[in-house]
Write a structure and sequence with these properties.
The chain contains 14 helices and twelve strands. It is of the alpha/beta class. It folds into two domains: about 150 residues, Aspartate Aminotransferase, domain 1; about 220 residues, Type I PLP-dependent aspartate aminotransferase-like (Major domain) (Aspartate Aminotransferase, domain 2, 3-Layer(aba) Sandwich), CATH 3.40.640. Helix 12 runs parallel beside helix 14. One of its GO terms (biological process) is amino acid metabolic process.
């Protein structure tokens, strides 16, 4: 039995490099408050409220009935790798052989596998901020250094080529690129990607991890593009990541995949063989149907997401002190609260930063959002509008009332 103080001595010092996921922590806090009887509206989780489409669920049931319940190849069944290769050709104009494709237990494991397989102490990874909360912590867990490059609201939260150039050093090993972005919803045009690619083509030691998980969730005619497609010269040092969680409402199925050069995929498979081994066999067969089956429901659901986005933008736009840019994709908005800093809430909390804003908002109104510092940029907060319009309207009304009470 552990004695006082012995537990910390027993645990690995590696864990001191990282923190628990803030978005997961806030989502769990909202669940706990609900369980205590609090009236809580959770806008923290990046999870569609739609059901997994029926044809995908039926494919999973058929897989069970067919006995596809045993171990599979470590990084994906041949049928799923073929479906992934077809998806890359169809949607992105990219050709990947089966040995250049890796399937894992969610997109996060793909990122983890790639960074753990390639990073060492002294390596650097460029991460534009705001960023998905797990990027820098996975880099730190691998013993490397995240190099955070802040973007600006006036640039639409997009990384500028000159900022990328300034961040690259001889120690840079990766750039993590995410479009459309979590947490901002910002999307990069082909021209904007090409401008970044010009910088990267001059620095041949830098690899690109392109997180395309929100590829299909986009609005207002925004045309998605990915770096290996826009700049073919980068393909041999690019990992193109995607998955079924967001567009197919399959967050709990935990299937992510990537296309990448074979030596990297081989290294990732080696690592995965000593961690989780294969992703769930049944979820893999469901993902085959997701990628190969009907895709028309995506446009229908995107229309609902767009309507929700527009509702939130309209409501937040009426609140003095909040400035909210219009996202091109994903299902998040990332408003600035620069105009609210220094004020005090009705409950007596001084709004010194976005974290105190988010905490007071939850305590006084029951609306759970994620503070901008969790994503590496303040003073902002993130709202996920992947929930019903009715809940979003009520949440925005509470936010407006809270802000009106600030003095």
């Amino acid at each position: 039995m552990f004695q006082p103080g012995a537990t910390m001595a027993f645990l690995s010092a590696t864990l001191e490099r990282i923190r628990p996921s803030p978005t997961v922590a806030i989502t769990q806090l909202a669940r706990d408050l609900k369980a205590q009887g609090r009236d809580v509206i959770g806008l923290a989780a990046g999870e569609p409220d739609f059901d997994t489409p029926a044809h995908i669920r039926e494919a999973a049931k058929a897989a069970i009935d067919a006995g596809h319940t045993r171990y599979t190849p470590v990084d994906g069944i041949p049928e799923l790798k073929a479906a992934v290769a077809a998806k890359f050709r169809r949607d992105n104009g990219l050709d990947y052989a089966p040995e250049e494709i890796s399937v894992a237990t969610g997109g996060k494991q793909v990122i983890y596998n790639a960074l753990m397989a390639t990073l060492e102490a002294g390596d650097e990874v460029i991460i534009p901020a705001p960023y998905w909360v797990s990027y820098p912590d996975i880099v730190r867990l691998a013993g490397a250094t995240p190099v955070i490059v802040e973007t600006r609201l006036e640039d639409g939260f997009r990384l500028r080529p000159e900022a990328l150039e300034a961040a690259i050093t001889p120690a840079t090993k990766w750039l993590i690129f995410n479009s459309p972005s979590n947490p901002t919803g910002a999307g990069y045009s082909r021209a904007q990607i090409a401008a970044l690619a010009e910088v990267l083509e001059r620095h041949t030691h830098v690899w690109v991890l392109s997180d395309d998980i929100y590829e299909h969730i986009r609005y207002d005619g925004f045309e998605f593009a990915t770096p290996a497609e826009v700049a073919p010269a980068l393909k041999e040092r690019t990992l193109t990541l995607n998955g079924v969680s967001k567009a197919y409402a399959m967050t709990g199925w935990r299937i992510g995949y990537c296309g990448a050069p074979k030596p990297l995929v081989d290294a990732m498979r080696k690592l995965q063989s000593q961690s989780t081994t294969n992703p769930c066999s049944i979820a893999q067969w469901a993902a085959v149907e997701a990628l190969n089956g009907p895709q028309d429901f995506i446009a229908t659901r995107n229309k609902a997401f767009r309507n929700r986005r527009d509702l939130v933008l309209a409501e937040l736009g009426r609140i003095e002190g909040i400035d909210c840019p219009r996202p091109e994709g994903a299902f998040y908005v990332f408003p600035s609260i620069a105009g609210l800093i220094g004020k005090r809430s009705r409950g007596g909390t001084e709004i010194t930063d976005d974290e105190t804003f988010a905490r007071a908002l939850l305590e006084e109104t029951g609306v759970a959002v994620v503070h901008g510092a969790a994503f590496g940029l303040s003073p902002f907060f993130r709202i996920s509008y992947a929930t019903s319009s009715a809940l979003l309207a009520e949440a925005c009304a509470r936010i407006a009332d809270f802000c009106a009470g600030l003095r």
